[in-house]
Please model this.
Amino acid sequence: MTTIPCYVRTLRRQWGFTQKELAGLIGRGGHERVADVELAKAMPNAAEILTYSLLFGVPPADIFPALYEGLEERLIQAAYTLDEKLKVEDTQRARNIRKLLKEALDRATGKARNPIKQ
Model:
């Protein structure tokens, strides 16, 4: 199991929650689960990550920076591999995917201008 440092404990203590109170809000397990996530003994699932983010008003990348950076690096590597494969395809589908991959890379490297188009 991969362990990841996070800022759940910092945020919990900043706001004055006990582990038991936070566990009740997160909705998974008891205070032991919160303790395991805080101590990087357990990896939070997607629902927990999003719930922590919603509760504290902090982006997931700021609460779980090591997890975010690891996922980002893995995505960049996979995107590069797929982009290389699609370079030989001259289809609209390939162009669309390559455009999205470039936008994802720009976001990852901080070059994105408008992350969400409405």
User: Anything to note?
Assistant: DSSP finds seven helices and no strands in the chain.
